[in-house]
Amino acid sequence: MTDSGDDIRLLEIRLFTLRPGVREEFHRISRDGTVPLMRRGGITVITHGPSRNDEDGYYLLRAFRSEEERVRLSLAVYETEEWLRDYEDVVPKMMTDYQTSVVPVPRGALEEFARSMTAAAAAG
């Protein structure tokens, strides 16, 4: 059985290592600024937040239809006036490192995961 391109999404997993003491501010900037900016730019942000097992860790999960879309939408966000004005000089300085992994996931499974993450966040 093969999947058509419409049945697969790319799950991008970003793991950030932050400088000690900046995670709370990084989360505030993500929650109130960069994640809404990504969503306005057409990026599906599934979830983001502080890592539970690393006091300097932070994660961001995003979904895309293709690698081309992932690259195009990501670059477009980083070229916006808002990113350049408000985040370009701030966000990278808060990180010591980050890694990105891209995993193909069946669309239905990813949509169910996104729904469950939204429900969990709403429940507190």
Q: Could you characterize the architecture of this molecule?
A:
By secondary structure, the chain is of the alpha+beta class. It has five helices and four strands; from the N terminus they run E-H-E-E-H-H-H-E-H. It has helices spanning about 25-40, 65-80, 80-85, 90-95, 105-124, and strands spanning about 10-20, 45-50, 55-65, 95-105. A four-stranded antiparallel sheet has the order 2-3-1-4, with helices on both faces. The longest helix has 18 residues, at about 25-40. It is globular.
Briefly, what is this?
It contains five helices and four strands. The protein is α+β, with helices and mostly antiparallel strands.
In this structure, how is the largest beta sheet organized?
A: 4 strands, antiparallel
Oligomer state equals single chain
- Cα(first) to Cα(last) distance is 40 Å
Count of extended strands? 4
Helix content: 40-55%
Uncertain spans = none
Strand order of the largest sheet: 2-3-1-4
Order of helices and strands: EHEEHHHEH
Strand content: 25-35%
What is the count of DSSP helices, taking H or I runs of 4+ residues? 5
Kindly report the average pLDDT value. 93
Radius of gyration: 15 Å
Structural class: alpha+beta
* Global outline: globular
